[in-house]
Amino acid sequence: MSNTYDVSAENNPLTWRMRDDKQPVWLHEYKSKNGYRAAYKAITQMSPEEIIELVRNSGLRGRGGGGFFTGIKWSMMSQSKSVCSRYLVCNADEMEPGTYKDRFLMERLPHLLLEGILISSYALGASRAYIFLRYEYIIVAKYLTRAIAEIKSIGLIGKNILNSEFNFELFLHTGAGRYICGEETALINALEGRRAVPRAKPPFPSHVGLWGKPTCVNNVETLCNIPGIIEHGTTWYRNISSKKSNDSGTKLMGFSGRVKNPGVWELPFGTTAREILEDYSRGMCPGFSLKAWQPGGVSTDFLTTDHLDTPMDFDKIAISGSRFGTGMAIAIDNTVNMVSLVRNLEEFFSRESCGWCTPCRDGLPWIVKLLISLENKDGRPGDIELLEKLCCVLGPGRTFCAHAPGAIEPLKSALKYFKNEFELGIHEFYKQEPNRIICVQIN
To answer: What share of the chain is helix, strand, coil (3-state, %, to 5)?
Structure first.
């Protein structure tokens, strides 16, 4: 975080407790900063139904990238009295390249996440919760293990929490490291010890999830918003976002790439990309200029400098032709060849495909081969058209999950804005004698 970044409890519910020396806030200090006060209020003074309705009215949207309304997701959980077990799973896998906001929260405020999990589990009637953590987050695993032990020592894990009938257990599970685990049903399979492949929906996890029981999967940052909503209410939460945005609350946002001050900041929804780039990241490094940017990780469409004044929220970024995603933007500088960049991204997505469905399993490697040819100036007439058709074949509704549709977003947008760079990859021989080539057609 920038040294000049002003943090206040009223406007920054996620970050105001953080220490200036960047060390984690442990239990004693966290409680001295109103920590677990929301949990006490929720469990001793509110019913689960009241909490779910409060979260629903707050307008909180999922912070993992999808942006689905959290209160609606919670209300979909099966409340059948015949179901004795319900689960909450915290998605802390964070495998999206260019994204490190959840790690930032867990390393600095592990107890904020635990308080959010505790309140959410009570509201959902979940007696057991799991944190599914990215295997590379070794320091985070160490901190969370200590934080879990601390709240267990004061009776916030175990039976009859705060003299109520609420029994609660919390477990930390380290994943094996797969991008596909960002899809909630693939994460559930991995947690069960199965192959990390998405499940068919319906049934949805809210009815048939972990071990066949009702399950809710929420992102780290999403859960970290819950204590503030419980403590201060929905009117406060809706009003701390910018008037430029219809979304509620604040969001961890930032820029990485060749910027002077890469980082992450808690900002109100509606803050423009230009403000983040110029005021917080302090602009591009000397000798570099901005060529393109991705709003929320590498699976979002490229935007150009013409889009920098777009307010950063789910709806406004969608209107601009991309996705808000995780809100962690990536700056692409003027020295980057877009064909090489996209080839690198598609190699990643191809490698991370679970291989479950044909369009993704076979289509992504095909895209990589075509991009390698264009990168090496050995492309053929029809290659670019073939890439455009593959973008359709791997688009939404044509694959088992959203992995392939997300993978082709950077390719599709690069072809839209920087097609001339792809055209430079056609070999001179084929330009001179185009009749020698027969183009492959996909219907």
So the answer is: 45, 15, 40
